[in-house]
Design brief:
Length: 170
Amino acid sequence: MLETNTRGQIFSTDLIIAGAVFLLIATMTILYSNQMAQNISATETANAREQAAIAAANSLVYSPGTPGNWENFPEITGVESIGIAKTRNEIDSQKLGRIILLSQTNYTEIKDLLGLSKYGFFVSVQNMQNSQPIYQFGTLPLAEKETSTVNRIATLNGSDIILRVQVYST
């Protein structure tokens, strides 16, 4: 019978290397998951802003607002939703003029009616031929702001126009 009297070492170079590799893998996993969480959060924020811009543009171009004659009200109170369409994709020049005036003094209320209470907005009505702005309302975003832009084609006084809605985080 062969007897060996050898003992294993509890603390060896192999154990040090294995511990270092384990810590490296654990650190990389934590850093990667944090980066992924930040990317997902940024994407969700951008998607929410984009959806708000789409809803606001659709409201303006597709709907006359509620009530349908809101542009005749002396105040914005009593308006449930705001739209500037005579019919779908046809802009009512009287409603457009009224929303331009109201946005100068009631910007926050207009934002709320468009479903943009968490954001800032800027709308421009542009000539379709040369993209020159004809009318504008809202507040321009600063250059460093992340902005979602939605374009809708419509007609105004028989001419084709582009209604551009820019929505940005405040």
